[in-house]
Specification:
Elements: H1 5-55, E1 65-68, E2 73-74, E3 77-78, H2 80-94, E4 101-103, H3 115-125, E5 133-135, H4 142-155, E6 160-164, H5 170-178, E7 183-186, H6 197-215
Parallel strand pairs: 1-4, 1-6, 4-5, 6-7
Antiparallel strand pairs: 2-3
Length: 219
């Protein structure tokens, strides 16, 4: 049966009212999402500035241990980046800045070797005594390695460390170690700051985003 014009009109205006109500309800959600996006952007910008400032700091200070954050390894051999970190740690050790070197990092994509063990073996081949080397071999990322290294430090009655990594990784690594109650000094591997302005901003933004995920408890 055909509906009367009155019925159609009522249906039309009723539908418009429902749509308007729905749109009005969605406005607060849009504002919340917009504010969240703005807050995240501000956090990334502020953190990027801090990362770039920290990248230029080198605190060659005596400490309980030198901690080398791992990087890629290839069939039991450190990558060029990792080897440069290890060589810098070796130089600091030779100058007597710490009695122990701790290398970090799990197996990653290679089940036969861990970054921590590869780093330890490399330093031993350079002449660092076995008694002065500790390998953390289970950490799957910077935060996990920081937690495990803190346990190792406390177990050996150490409360300070000298971190070695790439310049733009230093801020995040230091924050994570400090969160574990460790007094942290930093010494980036020489030549690890990107050469171009674009490269520096990109590295800072990438590290800033990783730090945002860490603060948000997102792995």
């Amino acid at each position: 049966m055909e509906r009367s014009p009155k019925s159609r009109s009522s249906s039309f205006w009723g539908g418009s009212s429902a749509t308007s109500a729905s749109n009005s309800k969605s406005h607060p959600i849009r504002w919340i999402l917009a504010l969240a996006a703005l807050g995240a952007a501000a956090f990334l910008l502020y953190t990027s500035v801090r990362i770039m400032r920290e990248a230029g700091v080198d605190q060659e200070h005596s400490a309980g241990a030198i901690v080398v954050f791992g990087a890629a390894e290839y069939s039991g051999h450190p990558s060029p980046v990792y080897r440069a970190r290890l060589d810098h740690a070796y130089s600091l050790f030779e100058r007597g800045l710490a009695p122990v070197i701790i290398t970090t990092g799990g197996a990653g994509g290679d089940p036969h070797f861990s970054e921590g063990q590869v780093g330890r073996d490399y330093l031993e081949s350079r002449g660092v005594p076995d008694a002065n080397l500790i390998a953390e071999t289970q950490g799957g990322d910077t935060d996990e390695s920081a937690q495990r290294v803190a346990v190792i430090l406390r177990a050996n009655d150490m409360r300070t460390c000298l971190l070695v990594s790439d310049a733009y990784h230093m801020f995040r690594a230091k924050q994570m170690m400090t969160a574990q109650g460790i007094v942290v000094y930093i010494s980036p591997r020489p030549g690890s700051i990107p050469k171009t302005v674009f490269g520096r901003y990109l590295a800072a933004l990438r590290e800033s985003f990783s730090y945002l995920l860490y603060k948000a408890h997102v792995r």
